[in-house]
Specification:
The protein is an alpha/beta fold and 303 residues long. The protein has a domain at 89-292: Aminopeptidase, CATH 3.40.630. Helix content is 32%, strand content 18%. The chain is built from seven helices and ten strands. It has helices at residues 2-20, 131-148, 166-176, 210-228, 245-248, 265-271, 274-292, and strands at 48-52, 58-62, 89-94, 101-106, 114-118, 152-155, 180-187, 198-202, 238-241, 254-261. The chain has a six-stranded mixed beta sheet with strand order 6-3-7-10-8-9, with helices on both faces. Strand 1 and strand 2 form a beta hairpin. Helix 2 (131-148) crosses helix 7 (274-292) and helix 4 (210-228) runs antiparallel to helix 7 (274-292). The structure holds zinc ion. Zinc ion is lined by residues 95-96, 121, 131, 185.
Length: 303
């Protein structure tokens, strides 16, 4: 009897355990699969970030607004190239004038020596054309080319019938503060076989721009001879003069070109020809260009 009652109790306990601890039962508890959808992520606005801290505080950061994406800039067009002599002031003195003025003027600011204000120069041995005419013809062509190249040009004269002394010509260049002055002349000698072009520059005592003058003279004579086919006369084509009133009164860089010899028949026929004068002007222009821009090619520039 006691044994039977114990079995009943044991059975009851077994049932009770089976009901209260299902995971220990055979066939093991497996949770039913759920169809719970995965949480969808709602994107935050780009500029705002929300962060939950461990203390369950919500912190909202505003991120910096991104700059707009770069838009391709339009391809730059060719920038206009300034004319090669823009901003420069260049003086041109067409040597002499139709009527010489034998009145005297001081040869230099600190000199008692007096010289004629202006002579009428030489003339062509074959053509009879006066030097002052050739000088002015080339000067006007050179003026045109230089202005086209952007330079401001100071002309001592644009006509033959004027009366301007050599000192006054130099002082005109000083007044305008020219960056470079060039005096245009043709030479004449008793020896009619002598020919060729050469340069005059002031001696060291008569200029503050000795090196500049020599450099300009070298560049101009080189280009001039290339453009005209004339040869350079004298040693290196440069002579140094202390007796030129037109130099001695000038406080700016200045050179003088003897463009050839009107006393030589061949050169007279060339120097007085309009188309040859075009070449003379272009040659001088290219030399001026080379002086101001040594990197330019010897043949550089227009025309
Ligand atoms: Zn002369």
């Amino acid at each position: 009897m006691m044994k039977k009652r114990w079995l009943v109790v044991l059975l009851a306990l077994t049932l009770l355990l089976a009901c209260t601890n299902p995971q220990t039962a055979e066939g093991a508890f497996t949770p039913a699969p759920t169809d719970t959808p995965a949480p969808t992520e709602t994107p935050e606005p780009e500029e705002i970030v929300v962060i939950e801290t461990p203390d369950n505080e919500t912190v909202v950061y505003e991120t910096p607004t991104l700059p707009p994406p770069p838009t391709p800039s339009p391809t730059p067009g060719p920038t206009p190239v300034p004319p090669p002599l823009a901003g420069l002031v260049i003086g041109i003195d067409a040597g002499h004038q139709s009527h010489g003025d034998l009145e005297k003027e001081p040869n230099a600011p600190d000199s008692d020596e007096m010289k004629a204000r202006c002579s009428s120069g030489t003339r062509g041995i074959a053509t009879g054309i006066y030097e002052y005419e050739v000088n002015l013809a080339v000067a006007l062509k050179l003026q045109s080319i230089l202005e086209e190249a952007g330079a401001t040009v100071v002309m001592t004269r644009t006509e033959n019938d004027v009366n301007i002394s050599n000192r006054e010509r130099a002082e005109l260049f000083n007044e305008y503060g020219v960056d470079l002055a060039i005096r245009l002349h043709c030479n004449g000698t008793n020896d009619t076989s002598v020919r060729g072009a050469f340069m005059l520059v002031p001696t060291k005592e008569h200029t503050s721009f000795y090196n500049e003058n020599v450099r300009a003279a070298t560049a101009i004579l080189d280009s001039y001879c290339k453009a005209t086919g004339l040869s350079a006369r004298k040693h290196n084509g440069i002579t140094y003069r202390s007796d030129q009133t037109g130099f001695n009164w000038c406080t700016q860089p200045i050179v003088c070109i003897e463009m050839g010899h009107l006393s030589n028949e061949t050169e007279d026929l060339l120097l007085t020809k309009d188309t040859f004068q075009d070449k003379m002007a272009v040659g001088i222009y290219r030399g001026i260009l080379a002086y101001f821009d040594p990197d330019s090619t010897a043949e550089g520039g227009n025309p």
